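[job 0412] stage=complex_fold ligand=2'-monophosphoadenosine-5'-diphosphate status=START
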Amino acid sequence: MTDNQIPLAGVIGHPIGHTKSPKLHGHWLKTYGLPGHYVPMDVAPEDLESVLRTLPKAGYVGANVTVPHKEAALQIADHVSDRAAKIGAANTLVFQPDGSIQADNTDGYGFMENLLAGAPDWNPQDGPAVVFGAGGAARAVLQALVEAGVPEIMLTNRTRARADQLREEFGPRITVVDWVKAGNVIENAELVVNTTSLGMQGQPELRVPLDGLQPGSVVTDLVYVPLKTRLLQAAEEAGCTTVDGLGMLLHQAVPGFERWFGKRPEVTDELRATVLG
Ligand code: ATR
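[job 0412] stage=complex_fold status=DONE, emitting C-alpha cells
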C-alpha cells in the first residue's frame, strides 16, 4: 500500500453470507471517521493461498479469516503468534509492507474480554471452570482460561476422545469428564462455558442437567443466536451471572481493527445494536 491509498481489509470465508464482521468494522470506521473499507470475500479453499498472496499487493492491510479457512491460514502465514499456534487456527491476519503474512488468533482474547466486561466480579483464579465442547471454539476458550490462571478446567464433550486430545495439548489443569456426567460437576464450578453449537437456532438444545447451577456462578454461552439460550435462561433463574456470546464476536475484532486502521475501537451498546440490527 502506498501512503495515499485507502487501507482495505476484509473477511475471508466460504460461504460468507452470514458474517457480521463487515457491519462491525464498518460501524467503527464510520464512528471514528477513518478512511478505509472492510469487505466480505467468498474464497474457495483451493484459492486461499493465492488470494492471501495477492491481497497485500492490492492495498489490503489485513484480513479476518473464518470457516473453513482458519487452520489453512495458519499454515500459509509467514509468522504465527504464540496464541494462534496454541489454538491451531488463525482468525486475524496482518499483511506487512513486504507482503509477508502475520497470523494471530484473537478468539480467546475476545472470549476473556467479554467475560470480564460482563462479569466484572469474576476472578479467574477463584475456582474451577466447566467447559462443554472440544471443537475449535473450545480450543480458543481453553487457551484463554489456562493463560488467565484458572486452576482447574473440567472439560466435557460428547466425543470423549476429542476432549482427551485437548487435555494432552493444554495440560494437567484440565480434567476430562464424561458427557453423561456433565451435570454432576456443574455445582462445583465458578464458571460454566458452552462452546458447542447446541442451543443455536436450528440446532438441538444443550440437554445437560442444569439443576446443579449455583447462585453466584458465572455462566456464558458462545452461541449468540438466540442471545438468551436455554443455558443462559436456566442460569438466570438459578441466580447466576450470565454473559451472552455476542460480546466475544465484538471483542475479538478489536486487535485486528487497531492493527489495520490505527485506532483501538470501543465495544459499545451502540455497536451491539448495529450488529444485531
Ligand atoms: P467449533 O469450531 O464451532 O467449535 P466444531 O469443531 O465442529 O465447531 O465443534 C462443535 C462442538 O459441538 C463439538 O464439541 C461437538 O461435539 P463432538 O466433538 O462430539 O462432535 C459439539 N456438538 C455438536 N453437535 C452436538 C450434539 N448434537 N450433541 C453434543 N455435542 C454436539
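The chain has two domains: 8-104+249-276, 108-243.
[job 0412] exit 0
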